[in-house]
Design goal:
With about 450 residues, the chain is α/β, with parallel strands linked by helices. The chain has helices at about 10-20, 35-40, 50-60, 70-75, 100-105, 125-140, 155-160, 175-180, 185-190, 200-230, 235-240, 260-275, 285-305, 335-345, 355-365, 375, 390-395, 395-400, 420-425; strands spanning about 1-5, 25-30, 65, 80, 115-120, 145, 165-170, 195, 315-320, 350, 370, 380-385, 410, 425-430. The protein starts with a strand and ends in a 16-residue tail after the last strand. The structure holds uridine-5'-diphosphate-xylopyranose. The site of uridine-5'-diphosphate-xylopyranose (UDX) has 20 residues, from helix 10.
Amino acid sequence: MRLTVIGTGYVGLVHAACMAEIGHTVIGIDLDTDRIEGLTRGRVPFYEPGLRELLHRGQESGRLRFTTSLAAAARSAQTHFVCVGTPQRLDSHAADLRFVDAVVDDLAPHLRGWCLIVGKSTVPVGTAARLGARLTRIAPEAEIAWNPEFLREGFAVQDTLRPERLVAGVLSPRADAVLREVYAPMLRAHVPFVSTDLPTAELVKLAANSFLATKISFINAMAELCDATGADVVTLADAIGRDARIGHRYLQPGLGFGGSCLPKDIRALMARAEELGLGESVGFLRQVDEINTRQRRRVVVLAEQLAGGSLSGLNVAVLGAAFKPGSDDVRDSPALAVAEEIHRQGARVRVHDPEAVDNARAALPWLQFTLDVPKSCEDADVVLHLTAWPAYREIDPAELASVVRRPAILDARHTLDAARWRSAGWTVRAFGRPKLGRDPGEGFR
Ligand code: UDX
């Protein structure tokens, strides 16, 4: 099939590359001339495992091209995927829909006959119907569909080629058939295909992310209870996660969620519910958000406790800048938010990250960054472990103890071997594990 993919961000570029990989002829379109020029020359604008190879293969085969010209591309295909961003508005919690609106307005005049405009962007429920009405005023035979994207950063290619489910919000059997044809290899591999109406498809995405965010904040709320009662949250999460109805995934306690989706999506769902007069129905999401941001403040308080008072004038080493391991993305990164707050309190902050230093430096140029763990910890009064990169588990605590001023570490992601660090002379603290500091041999694995 011939497809266009409008928007070459995380979702669009991965989708374009994966659609070419499964045999479609794809044109990727973006207004950003630098990005399109770079892509044409084989430059990948962000790190995502497997993407470089896919882009290369697609372009070599001639099945994948990039352009800034929507007009020319629009006439070359009948199916157009809309993958532009829907960031949080600056003046409210609602999603900013100006980019999706603009795509429909720009695309419509170039459409001839029946064609399918498939939204993949995350939008408030009701957007697809509104866009459909807007579209058919200019291109009466064109049809809208919604096909939300569930990819995780770091697994984007894998999640697109082997998704756990496909969701298609459609208005006609013809649209349903087109989407089944687009995803034919996945359907042959028995990926479930949920065909539904437009509002359900739009809502599935925000509901899924809100559920995941709720699960994370739930376990972080339990960590606060553990701190007050002497219980251990890691053991608690393990024990409740063994109930198959609950499961272990998204039950990892710690500094909480960040990134470009979870925080903005729960806020967008709250904002839309309020518009519909249903704010109370999803009122719990406000608490989910509050619990999440509270974890960032708790790190600062715990760091002060570890330092024995104010952080002002102290050296603080921060391990991790990315919003999660396996990514170089620092958008709404909990780790960077903590680094910035500690800097504001007058500490000298040195941040290490194996992949995200360039992006982090661009966001917060006044902090110090390094690619070398011992360097980030030189003369440190406190070390904060804020992003769960696997490489941090391999650190030799005895070696690191020789470069710091005081061997004190806060493991805000619960992935370090506390016993090993303690036997190398470190004071170790972690949320929801109050016994870690006091009672050797008990309460940690
Ligand atoms: C998320 C959704 O998973 C994906 O389906 C959607 O399409 C986009 O948003 P992503 O933002 O890539 O994907 O991150 P994800 O892997 O879900 O992690 C989100 C955040 O939650 C990260 O900051 C991570 O560190 C945190 N997290 C995750 C926890 O704190 N605990 C957990 O148990 C799991």
